[in-house]
Amino acid sequence: MLILAIDTALEACAAAVLDTDAGELLAQEQLLMKRGHAEALMPMIARVMQSAGLAFTALDRIAVTVGPGSFTGLRVGISAARGLALAANRPAVGLTTLSAYAAAIIGQSQSAPVISAIDARHDHVYFQIVSGDGSQLARPTVASIDDAIAASQFGAPHLVGNAARILADRWPKNAPQPVAVETQAAPDIGWVAWLGAAADPDTNPARPFYLKAPDAKPAALPPFAQAASS
């Protein structure tokens, strides 16, 4: 199976092509960035596909991270995945950013529970907890840092994600201490591709996975506009 993987959910823009039959990435590229994903993504995808020596119609599916993450970044990646899937007549699958973070740890056959954490700002994090074999211990949610730590009573954890250090710095001294802390700006694009190969397109659609409303709110309409719309 040939998979094009895309990630623009956080502070990176990444794309890769995975050949599952060969068990290897044919091409990959990642650029760390806080903004500019829209301008960087399509040229990056073109370079990755050219490096892999493939036409888009040779792909079996397209995988994309669907959140949690930046609202703007998610729209960029998901729109690209959907558009390419439509043009190539191939399925697009969505993977959560939290599961992509955890996949690399689970793939190392670690026994410790894995806490994936993403900075949600305002002293909150998006997080989920899985066991060393990947089974779910706490479903994805958004919570205050203290509440996230309080929910993490499954033994000494492996922390991963762009908020891993944030959790580690607040970890109680009297609790089992994290066995590892891996602060990563974005998940490994290779694991996004592998998760995409395993996902069922019918149950993992390429649509945004939001755990909270956006911080920015639409401006209120002026009185004359409210009257016109009523």
TrEMBL record:
Alphabetized InterPro entries for the sequence: ATPase_NBD, Gcp-like_dom, T6A_TsaB
Domain of life: Bacteria
Keyword Transferase: yes
One GO term (biological process): tRNA threonylcarbamoyladenosine modification
Key word Transferase present: yes
This protein's UniProt keywords: Transferase
Domain Gcp-like residues, every copy: 33-149
A cellular-component GO term for this protein: cytosol
Alphabetized PANTHER family for the sequence: TRNA N6-ADENOSINE THREONYLCARBAMOYLTRANSFERASE (PTHR11735), TRNA THREONYLCARBAMOYLADENOSINE BIOSYNTHESIS PROTEIN TSAB (PTHR11735:SF11)
Descriptive protein name: tRNA (Adenosine(37)-N6)-threonylcarbamoyltransferase complex dimerization subunit type 1 TsaB
